[in-house]
Each structure stands twice: as C-alpha cells, then as structure tokens.
Design goal:
With 291 residues, the protein is an alpha/beta fold. It has two domains: 146 residues, D-Maltodextrin-Binding Protein, domain 2 (3-Layer(aba) Sandwich); 92 residues, D-Maltodextrin-Binding Protein, domain 2, CATH 3.40.190. 41% of the residues lie in helices and 17% in strands. A six-stranded mixed sheet has the order 2-1-3-10-4-11, with helices on both faces. It has a five-stranded mixed sheet with strand order 7-6-8-5-9, sandwiched between helices. Helix 3 runs antiparallel to helix 10 and helix 5 packs across helix 11.
C-alpha cells in the first residue's frame, strides 16, 4: 500500500495549511484494510513434546520442527512459532490452559487426556508411529502363557509416566494383573532396560524402542509378550481455533508429502508424513489405557 510521505521542513507554511498531515489521514485507511484482510493479532503457537524416555534436548527438538512451522505458516497465512514442552508437566499445563494453538504430542496418553477434556481435537497421526507396541524382554524361551505365574517377579520399565509404562500397566490389567502384583522398577531411559534383565535385576523389561528390541534379540534374548498397537505421536488443535484454521492445518499436515517444501520439512523433522486419525480408535484406547 502506498502511503504519502510527510512534508519536508523546507516547504512553505502555506503548504502545510492547505494539506493536513497525510500520515494521519492514511492511518484509518490502513487499519481498515488490515482488518478487512483478516490480519492476525498474534502468531499461532505450536507446542512440541517428544517424550521423556529418550535422551533428547530442547535444542535438538526445535530446529527439527522449524520447517514444518514455516509450511503451516504459509498454509494458514499467519505467523507460527514453536514452544518446546520439554516435560510432561509443562505439556499438560500448556494443554490444560490452552496456551498452544497446535500441538505435536509424543506420549499418546497426554494427547488423549487433552482430547477427552474437550480442549483439543486430533488433527493427524504420525506415519510409522500408529502401531507402537510394548515388548516384554526376557530370558525365558517361551512367551508368557499364564500371566498369574509372573506375580511377584521383577519388571523394569522406563519413566513411570512414559507411554511405554502406561501401555505396560494396561497390558497387565488386561491379563487380570494389577501392576502392584509385580516388583516394579523404573529407569529413566528405554535403552537402559535390557541391562536390568541381562544382569538378573528383573525378570522382564518393558520397552517399545525398536532398536533396543532388535539389539536384545540379536544378542540372544527373547520377547515374552507384546501389547496392542497404539498411535503415539499426534497432532492436536485447540478447540479455540476456528474451524477453518483447524481444517487448513489438517490439510497442510496430511498433504506435506505432495509438495517440495513439505518434503523438505518432513526430511528435517525425520518423519515420513502424517495420516488422518480415527475417533473410534481414540475412544477405545482411552478406555484401555485408563484415561
């Protein structure tokens, strides 16, 4: 938009009298045009959490999501910023208070809590992470056939609030066992789980890290049980967002692999794409996980 330049001080006084300050005249027009164009009052905020049982830092997370934020910004025609939610406490607080407009949440139970509360809705699930399963590592040659027989034995899991541990407890309840029936131990990171089983500190070790499971099997270890599949990396949208913005964000996420910019953003994020969620599966998982 063209805005007339202010009068220079060298112009005669009569000129000033005949021509009021053009900037003052232009200001209402500028404001009106900006409002008509739907200029955003503030940037949309993407909250990101990548779990607690992997050794990932805030400085590693944000750069991976910056290209995705740029694609979303262009699709939504407004600025988008990233807020890393490094702990589950900060993630839950941000979702409870709807501090973030969009959210990429790694732990399924935290995402499902927000959906069940009615504050957020699911936009997309992450391809390759829709069938996350917990494996129980063991030295026993056969799968568990009588779950009651494992009562009193040692079970090591990652952080108690990790999705791996939440799924493990759901597995036990499904088999008629309360978690307290076993001798539970928690370790901070998933890659530490095999150590406990290998050295006899626990009879079973719960992990869903495919690399950890592969290394365990390659070394001669066995898997005694697997859980049902759970989608664990989910995009959410605040219910405060208007329907058009939420729909545009969903379409942008689902269509990333169809554009060069989207492909570059996915490559940086390390993910291959996003797929539509299932409300039916969400409801079933809320019940199974005890949410």
């Amino acid at each position: 938009m063209y805005i007339p330049a202010p009068l220079r001080s060298g112009q005669p006084d009569g000129s000033r009298t005949r021509h009021p300050n053009p900037l003052r005249l232009a200001a209402p027009a500028v404001a009106a045009l900006l409002l008509a164009a739907g200029a955003p009052a503030h940037a949309l905020v993407i909250g990101v959490t990548e779990g607690v049982s992997y050794q990932t830092t805030e400085s590693q997370i944000a750069p991976r999501f910056e290209p995705l934020a740029e694609v979303l910004s262009k699709a939504l025609k407004q600025p988008v910023t990233i807020k890393v939610l490094i702990s589950y406490t900060s993630a839950r607080e941000a979702l409870k208070e709807q501090q973030v407009d969009l959210a990429f949440i790694h732990p399924a139970h935290v995402a499902l809590e927000a959906v069940k509360s009615g504050r957020y809705q699911a936009l997309a699930w992450t391809s390759g992470f829709t069938a996350y399963k917990v494996s129980l590592l063991c030295k026993e040659p056969q799968p568990i056939s009588n779950w009651k027989s494992i009562s009193g034995k040692g079970l090591v899991m990652p952080d108690a609030d990790s999705i791996t541990s939440v799924i493990t407890r759901a597995m036990l309840r499904e088999q008629g066992l309360q978690p307290a029936a076993l001798k539970l131990t928690n370790t901070r990171y998933q890659d530490a789980v095999p150590f406990y089983v290998q050295n006899g500190f626990a009879a079973y070790g719960a992990t869903a890290a495919s690399g950890v499971v592969k290394t365990w099997k390659d070394g001669g270890g066995n898997v005694c049980a697997e859980s049902r599949a759970v989608p664990i990396k989910q995009w959410l949208a605040s219910r405060k967002l208007d329907a058009a913005t939420a729909s545009a964000a969903r379409e942008a996420l689902l269509g990333l692999a169809q554009s060069d910019a989207g492909k570059r953003a996915l490559a940086t994020s390390t993910y291959t794409g996003f797929v539509a969620p299932s409300a039916e599966v969400e409801t079933a998982l809320m019940s199974w996980l005890g949410i």
